[in-house]
Design brief:
single chain, mainly alpha
Length: about 70
């Protein structure tokens, strides 16, 4: 936004509407980017939690199978 503000200082008279439009577009792009970042973080957190749950479940299943195999032997 600082780039836009500095460009506004050198903009010719009568370009206020165009400048406002550019500022609005930059703000919308920033908001969209932040939204995507949040969505990616949430997806990453969910995937990590699922991976941890699957790892724990697999470890327990392996341990149970090993215990049964030792008892059978």
């Amino acid at each position: 936004m600082a780039v836009v503000d500095s460009a506004v200082k050198n903009a010719p008279a009568g370009t206020e509407n165009a400048v406002a439009l550019v500022k609005s577009a930059v703000a919308a792009a920033n908001n969209a980017f932040e939204g995507v970042q949040k969505a990616v973080k949430q997806a990453t957190d969910v995937a990590e939690a699922n991976f941890q749950a699957i790892s724990t479940s697999a470890a327990k299943a392996t341990q149970a199978a090993t215990t049964k195999a030792k008892r059978a032997a």
